[in-house]
Design goal:
This protein has 119 residues and is mainly beta. It has two domains: 72 residues, SH3 type barrels (Roll); 31 residues, no CATH class. It is 0% helix and 37% strand. It is globular and about 50 Å long.
Length: 119
């Protein structure tokens, strides 16, 4: 049985406030308070994969990446609203704002201390 096409406009995707490589802190859920680096950003589903957060056991067959096989720990995605960016200068969780520089680049800046986050 074929699925009917969805009626109406496609939902608008909002940009995620963190990028791959950012340091974040989890602000809600079972891993609240943990800090880690963002490994992957999944903007279509508004989720991020954070190093050491939401770890689950996965059974893996032997292959070229995992020669031994067995049970490994793997990070699962968490919702992007459950993480908060950690500022590089003040080392505190912060909200971000957007600043347009003189050369026309848009960069994120810390709402707490005012420093630019993007290099």
């Amino acid at each position: 049985m074929a699925l009917k096409p969805r009626h109406g406009p496609e939902p608008v995707r909002k940009a995620i406030h963190v990028r791959s490589g950012d340091n974040v802190v989890v602000i809600s859920g079972k891993d609240r308070g943990k800090r880690g680096k963002v490994l992957r950003v999944l903007p279509k589903v508004n989720r991020v994969v954070v190093e050491g957060v939401n770890v689950s056991k996965t059974h893996v067959r032997p292959n070229q990446k995992v020669l031994q096989g067995g049970i490994i720990d793997q990070e699962s995605a968490v919702d992007a609203s459950n993480v908060m960016l950690v500022c590089r200068s003040c080392h505190e969780p912060t909200r971000t704002g957007v600043q347009i520089l003189d050369d026309g680049r848009r960069v994120r800046r810390c709402k707490r201390c005012g420093e630019t986050i993007d290099r």
